[in-house]
Amino acid sequence: MDFCLVFGEPGIGKSTAVAAALAQAEVLGEFRDPLPHIVYRDISQHRYACQLGRISGTFPGTDGLSYNIVNKVVPFIASASFASVIAEGDRLSNLPFISSLPDTWDVDVIHLYADDPQFAEDRRWARAGAIGKTQNASWVKGRRTKAWRLAESLPNCVWFDVRNDDVVEFLRNRPAFARVA
Predict the structure, then answer these.
(1) What secondary structure letter does DSSP report for 54?
(2) Geometric angle at alpha carbon 29, from 25 and 35, rounded to 5°
(3) In the Cβ-directed half-sphere of 40, how many Cα atoms lie within 13 Å?
(4) Contacts by residues 35-40 (CB-CB < 8 Å, ≥ 24 positions apart)
(5) What is the pLDDT of residue 37?
(6) What is the C-alpha separation between 50 and 118, in angstroms, rounded?
(7) Which of 68, 94, 114, 117 has the fewest C-beta atoms under 10 angstroms from its C-beta?
(8) Local structure of 18: helix, strand or coil
(9) What pLDDT is recorded for position 92?
């Protein structure tokens, strides 16, 4: 099974990039139980792919989920036997969760970042204007530090600067995304 986790600081464009990378995928359904997830048709046509979290809302992906969702994810995925699973956001972006993933899974961890703090700040303000909600500056700084430290601690983490390349095309070429029809 291909598992991809996309993470990074608030407002960097994780949800937007993942949604765009999956825009052409065939959605079979959006479910709430046992945890929010979206099921897509896999390229084999006989299996399924999954995105954890929600497609819509102010905070799509895993960001709108409870903090204890981590305890439900691995058992859910293991019992459902998806061909690929995609997750993005802060809820699953931690070393205990990543370390708990079975060795039999092909895990792809991607850190989206901008090496220019002003670029990231401008994106956050644009997002705040779009949704009518600003994020506390010290909370944002803490989330940014958390994302960078996690990325630095993972030897196989792929760093992708969202300022320089086509992030959507990059994601579409990752194994878990490439399996989604």
Answers:
(1) B
(2) 115
(3) 26
(4) 35/65, 35/69, 35/72, 35/73, 35/76, 36/64, 36/65, 37/76, 40/180, 40/181
(5) 94
(6) 34
(7) 68
(8) helix
(9) 93
